[in-house]
Structure formats: structure tokens, C-alpha cells
Amino acid sequence: MARTSPHLHADYDLPLPQIDMRDGVPHAMQFADSYYNADDGLAETRHVFLEGNDLPARMKAASHLTIGETGFGTGLNLLAVMAEMQNHPHCQIDFVSFEAQPLDAEMMAAAHAAFPQLAGLASQLRQALPPRWPGHHLVVLCGGRLTLHLHYGDMGAILPTLDIAVDCWFLDGFAPARNPSAWTADILSEVGRLTEIGGSFASFTAAGEVRRGLAAAGFAVAKSTGYGRKRDMIRGVREGTALPHVSSITASPRRIAIIGAGIAGAALAAGLSRRGAAPVLLDAAAGLASAASGNRAALQSPRLTVDHNAMSRLSAACLSWAARCSDAAGATLAAGVLALDAPDRMAARHAIFRQQRWPASLLRDADTVLDAETGKGIFYEYGRAIRPSILVKALAEGAEFHGDFDVASITMEAGQLVLGAVDSRQVQADAVVLAGGSRVADGLHLVGQDMPVEVTRGQVSHVPATSSSASLATGVSFGGYLTPSWDGLHEVGATFSRDLEQPEDIAAAHAHNLALLPAGIAGLFDGMTYDGLGLRTSYRASLADRRPVTGRIADKIWMFGGLGARGFTLAPLLGEMLAAQILNRPVPLPRDQRAGVAAARYLSQNTS
Fold it and tell me: Which helix (H) or strand (E) segment is 122 a member of?
């Protein structure tokens, strides 16, 4: 396979910019241009981008704005927005930015040193920076009021894949004469396509080709006084009628009932509450994370492919956010997951990975991670071994919770959805989300929908740590998985059965799980018997194509399910994106990634 794969030597990494600090100002050697004005970069940012878009007045009047930016650079423009937000505590911002050569934290620190008045905000940004991987990265700042969407990669390739409505643009980056590829007619046309009618732009440049490109993209363009020694800048307003991707904005629901209080429901609740909605978690069990999300420990790791297709890229984006969520919640047991070259299909995939160029913090050869006896593998630095209960509790913190609430009916009464429990209790909501894990099919039937949901049973063994295994400092996957020990026990699993009626055979489950361990790992547990080992059984739901389902399935009814065995990796980001969709906020994931998990892919089949 490795010899014939067309993807050998593919490059999925990003270049690190070459920076020369000149009198405290970062200078991009490739473009022979500075990242900001040497006289006063912050003053220029405020004059050109904030005042050029009338942003202070608009932030005062609006509860939410979407800002687009065509060059993230040092993050100075974002820092200026963060500072201005302190004057408008009611306003929330989605900030969508693009960067082909992202700086690392050390480079940013050097650039930020010139602005001591922003030191606290700059430190917050640097600490929240995502890994330098191509693709979409979510960053939450300003106590949750600012949602930064960083797209790392070629802006010209990314913009055509998005469908969002931007209120104002910061057209930034290096000067058109220095970096013409960032100012092409195609890029400016995409800026126009993605701008709300009446939305604005501002830019430091007044170059003629840029003015003409923006006019052709639908903007009324005007010159105005530039900053400092620069005579002119430009600003403008998007004219015309709404384009197809700009849907009519309806009133967003506020009180949203979520059926299921596992990782999917909790992640969605976090995204909703952060955006000002009132999520209500309902679960048939008495507490959070009682079903498949209730294991003592779990792994977060990506599912990457040698062609790094849409679902592979989405998996990386999900891991980027999930790992940072776990760290912030204090749920991380150990950083890093080692994926061994077993079984054979993984060895073949890993052989190709080793001949490709990936960001080292996404994946790298693992020869030096564990001793040679363990075997070769691929190491995912942002993989995590986590405590699920801690992560779910942190994500669900802002939600109202009703336990022992087994939903038996969903009806509409006087414009409100009414959810009735088996014990006759009721909860009212503006919208409902089905996120009940293995019971999501029950919710689908309540609202007259059907999908090919497959439920499987998984059994995880609780194995006492030995003197040899206690020092294991990373999660390990190998067709099964092994977690580092917590409270004296490892998690080893898991069985996979479609026969849900078969009586539970505890000894057979332990035998299956321990037999999954490769020789080098199994040696850590020499002499282990099944007697006294703990076992936990849970049920997972997946769809026919083994991809999650998110999206609206009927009027005021949404679904978030089919996460299978990767819920702790996928749910944190997908929950954020579904929350944004429900509340009419931007969802700036590429179109192919959104389509890959959209509920519509099954609804269209059911109605055809």
C-alpha cells in the first residue's frame, strides 16, 4: 500500500514565517514588509479598522457582530477589538480570520511587547493560541463573549468553501505590491459574497486594483484620510440584494431543551449558554454522564487519513478544541496518545504517514515515546487521556438540569414545545435537540423522523495498575485502548457487540479486552487474572456512514448524535458549531466538513 499510494510525500504542514525584529517591530522577510506601523501600530489599527468600520458605535448598538479579517498576523487587530469590547459588555463578537503563516507564541510575545497597554489581553490571547495546524481552530476569549475562528492556510482556497454573513471586514495583510496573492480579484469577490448587505470594510491600502476589485464585488468604495504619513485609506459598504447563502434572520430560540446529558448534550449546552441562550438538559438518569459518557477514563484522539480528506480535517479541528477544553476543565489525566502500528491496517496507514509531512504536534513517529519493546507507532501530542465526568460537568455548568426525566412525548402548545416525562412532569422550550446517545432513535420516533441508527454494546475492563504499568504517562490505542492509571486502575477496552440481547459474559469481556493488548503492552500485566476485575457496560450509537449527525430535522427540532466511540473528541467542537447554527450565529467550517456531518444527508434519503 505504501509503495503505490498517490499520497506519498504529501505536505500537510504550514511554513513558519521568517521574522526580523527591527526596533521592536516585526518585519516579514519574505514580503519585505512590517506587520504593523512602526510609529504606532495600535493607533493605526484603531483609526483604519475600528473607526473605518464605525465599530465602536456599532458595538454599542448591537448585541452581536461578525468581523472578518484577511490577515491575522500578530493578532493586533483582534487585541484592539478585545480592548474596545470592554466598553460594550453586552456585545458578543465572532471574529473570523485567516493566516497562511501563523506566528508561534514566542514570535507573538516579541511583537506584543510594543503595546504594554494591551499586556493582559495579549497574554490571554497567547495562552489560548491553538496548534499551528492547517484548518479551522476555535478560540474563546473575553470570558466567552468573543469567539475567534482562526483559519490557518491559503485564504484563497478557504474563502470559497465558507457560507457566512460578515458585518464588517478588516482587509489587512502585507501591502498589495508586496503580497499580491492576498488581494486578487477572486479573493475580493469572495469578500463581497460573504458580506451582509449593508456590511462594511476598511483597509489601510488605497491601491487602484483593490478599489476596483471591491467595487466589482458589490461595495460602494470611498477614500478617506489614512493614518499618520499615509495620505489615503479606503472604506466601503456592501450594496445590492441578499445572496442565497444569507438566510432571512428569524428570532433565535432562547430556552432550548436538550435530551441527553452526556458529552454531546453538555458540549451543546456549553455553546448555547456562552452565547446567551438558556439550555435545559434532560436525562432519564439521575445525573450527568450516566451512559456511554460515564466511563472512569477515556481517550481523545483523531481519525486521520492519508489523503487528509474533509472528515480527516474535521477530526483534527475537533481534536484541537477538545484537547484545549479538557485542559481548561482540569479533566486531563495525561497529554498525548500513542497509536501503535497494530492491527495491520493501522500499520499500513502509519507507514504512509511517516512518508508525509505533518505538523509535529499533530502527529509524529513514536519510536522515542515508549520503549522499543512496546512497538512502533504514531504519537498524537494533542491526544488526551481524560476524566469524562470532570469534562462533562464543566461543559454543563451553565445549563439547567432535570434528572430522572424520561421523555415520553414532544408536543406543540401555543407556539411552545412541551416535553412530557413518563412521570407526567413537563418542561417547555423554544426548541428541542435530540442528543440522547444510544437512545437518540427513541427521540426521532417521537418527532416522526427515522434514521439508520445502529446501537452497539461496549464493555470496558478496570485493570489494577502494576509496578510496571503505573508509570504509563500517555494513552495508548491499538485496535483497543489503554488509559494511564487513575485511582489505581487502568481502563482497557473495549468489546464491540451488535447483539444487545445476549446476556453479559463478564469473563469473556475481560478475555477479549486483555487479548487486544499487543505483546509489549500485555507484558505490563503479566500474571493478571480476571478475578475481581471491574467491568462497565455502555451503549454507543452510530450511523451507516460512521459519521456524526448534527442539524435541524424538523421545525424547532434539532439532532446531535451518532458520535460512536469518538464522542469526547468530536462533541466539544461540533456542539459549539451546532449551538451557533441554532442561534443564527456564523458556522465558519468549510462546506464539505459541514455537509459530511449534516442531518440533511439522511433526511433527503428518507424523503426521496
Answer: helix 119-128
Per DSSP, helices labelled H in 492-590 are 506-516, 519-522, 567-582
Which amino acid type is present at position 25?
Answer: V
What SS3 state is found at 123? helix
Task: Give CA–CA dist 29/18, Å, rounded.
Answer: 6
The side-by-side arrangement of strands in the sheet containing 135-141 is 135-141, 146-152, 92-99, 64-69, 166-171, 195-203, 232-238, 219-225
Question: Comparing C-alpha atoms, which of 341, 332, 324, 337 is closest to residue 369?
Answer: 337
Helix (H) or strand (E) holding 431: strand 431-434
The pTM assigned to this predicted structure is 0.95
Query: Hey, is 334 helix, strand or coil?
Result: strand
The three three-digit cell numbers of residue 174, written as one number: 502585507
Helix axes 119-128, 76-85, angle to 10 degrees: 120
Alpha helices (runs of H) in 292-428, residue ranges in sequence order: 310-329, 344-353, 388-395
CA atoms of 379 and 358, how far apart (whole Å): 12
Strands 232-238 and 454-464: unpaired
Give the number of residues written for the chain: 608
Supply the DSSP string of 131-179, one letter for each residue: PS-SEEEEEEEGGGTEEEEEEES-HHHHGGG----EEEEEE-SS-TTT-
- Grid cell for residue 381: 501530542
Can you tell me the distance from the alpha carbon of 297 to that of 495, in angstroms, rounded to the nearest whole number? 16
pLDDT in tens, 397-444: 999 999 999 999 999 999 899 999 999 999 999 999 999 999 999 999
Predicted local distance difference test score (pLDDT) of residue 250: 54
Residues 6+ apart with CB under 8 A from 100: 14, 15, 152, 153, 154, 155
Per residue in 329-352, pLDDT (tens digit) is 999 999 999 999 987 788 999 999
User: Looking at the predicted structure, is the pLDDT value of residue 372 above 60?
Assistant: no
CB 522 within 8 Å of CB 492: no
Q: Measured between alpha carbons, how far is 200 from 106 in angstroms, rounded to an integer?
A: 33
Backbone angles phi, psi at 435, to 5 degrees: -140, 40
Rounded Cα distance between 442 and 406, Å, is 11
* Sequence-ordered alpha helix ranges (H) in 257-309: 263-274
Bridge partner residues of 347 (DSSP): none
What residues are paired with 335 via a beta bridge? 384
Q: Smallest Cα–Cα separation from 261: which of 294, 283, 292?
A: 283
- pLDDT of 369 reads 47
